[in-house]
UniProtKB/TrEMBL annotation:
Residues 24-84 form the HTH tetR-type domain. Keywords: DNA-binding. The keyword rRNA-binding does not apply. This is Possible transcriptional regulator, TetR family. Residues 47-66 bind DNA. Residues 1-22 are annotated as: Disordered. One of its GO terms (molecular function) is transcription cis-regulatory region binding. InterPro entries: Homeodomain-like_sf, HTH-type_TetR-like_transc_reg, HTH_TetR, Tet_transcr_reg_TetR-rel_C_sf. It comes from the Bacteria.
Amino acid sequence: MSDSENPRGAPRRWRGQEPDDRRAARRAALIEAGLQIMGTEGTAATTMRATCRQASLTERYFYESFDNREALLVALLDHVVLGARDTLLGALETAPDDPGRLVRHVVKAFTGYIAEDRRRGRIMFVESQSVPELAQRGEQLVAEFTTPMAAALKMLGADGAPRDAVNTQLNAIALFGAIAFLYQRWLTGSPKISQKRIVEHIALTIEAHVPVNSTP
């Protein structure tokens, strides 16, 4: 492209890429760098400078994508948690009708998402509580899991007994807390617990919550 074809001051293509594509690629590189640091070394190590070094980008490009370190941390948590939510929803769409098989199908898919990249689990279940800004965002993201959990519990509890919305919501919250701690222990605990064992244990934990009913 010649100067006459490009307005003065307008961003230009570079190596066949549009300016927006380059910005998106730099942001993706920073996200991947942040995931590597936060998912292996922890939140405290996930600084702006460390992330730039890991991504081989300058500070200028960091601030092109994020206002500050806090914005990066929240973006990393969102990236992992929303990916987990999409995995959960996708598993629910393809789950078998049999209740026991349904539970294990969904739990297996969700556990697989974590096992595929254990950085995800550390960020969701360990680092998300490490600093106030992440804990606050984590509370907002809980609904991304409790909503499909509530829908699944309502379906599993189709035994004719009346259950109000509060009961379903409380069971979903209780399950979320229990499952989060189980995954946390699986990722950080000793001795090593097999993936098959954690899937079955969480499936049994979900099934045990189904009969809980405080509906007046």
